[in-house]
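Lab notes, practical 5.
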Amino acid sequence: MDINKNKLKTLRNKIEYILALHPETRNSDKRLWIMLIREFYSDKIESFLGRDMLTLEDYMDLPSQDLIKRYRAYFQNDPNDPRYLPTNDKIHQFRTDRSKSQDIIKASLGFNRRISEVGS
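Output from the prediction step:
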């Protein structure tokens, strides 16, 4: 990927950059978060006894793991253009099965009904 990472301004673009450049991050939201922090927020990382550390104050200023997970899922679950799919077949199958189960539950609870159907 031939992109100057310093020109990436939005969190979405930064996450897409990491997913494209580091395929192993497609399988683990924790790895994705760590790689994102190392690439774009390295000024928050301190070294202590040879280990990477974050202060609680700095941690509060970083993007949440939940938000990063949502962006990863957005790219992978886009019905028109799914991208950056997991490289591990077991993880891909697990996420596919979970998504199908969630769709069944939503439908059984009436979440997929159109507004015109509500109240009829």
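Observations recorded by the TA: The radius of gyration is 18 Å. The mean pLDDT is 86.
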